[in-house]
Fold:
Amino acid sequence: MTAGPEPRRPDQPGLPGRTPAASAPEAHHKHRDVSGGWLRPAVFGAMDGLVSNLGLISGVAGSDAGASTVAIAGLAGLAAGAFSMAVGEYTSVASQREMALAEIDVERREHRRHPDDELAELAAVYVSRGVEPGLARQVAEQLSADPDQALEIHTREELGVTADGLPSPTVAAVSSFCAFGMGAFVPVLPYLLGATVLWPAAVLALTGLFLCGAVVSKVTTRSWWYTGLRQLALGATAAALTYALGAVLGVALG
Structure:
């Protein structure tokens, strides 16, 4: 007797016991934080401190000033730059926040005075995004049942902000102060430890710039070595130019 075909195993294709590949769980991908979060302002604040204070120290050292004079200039540059950054950030963020809150108040008054117009406006937003008009109206009505939720949606759609999501001027100021101060301290450190020439401060600062540039690659599509070398080259150029300027002024005013 001829044997019949061998029964298929449950794990073979085409049988109910096998899960098709198409029904396998989706492998979700992840995105980087394109807003930069805390990383961007911190790194760029430190870079600013590194470049500006390295340039200041290089200019003073180029004028043939003594090591103590260079150290004092570096510490003064650190303090002045850090306070300037903090004041600038606080003023900028506070002004932006106040303007946004004023516009949110305008939207709040419109919701109280013309609720039907605001509802129709929200429905029109969803229609413009491809939602069928009847459904868009229903969605807008449901969302507008909660006045606070409706206001938040309108401000986000029209202004691109929400009251709870506005940045804090104090946090921005303190973050900028600390980041700039840490960066600006790096080129001063060798002088505080007894250095009498510029090159240890330059090497330390340029190394810091390379590391900051490499960290920036976390929020860009560039490779770490490219962003690191780019920042190193820019910082070195700034230091060289200010050193040359200091040398010229030292001769002219000496």
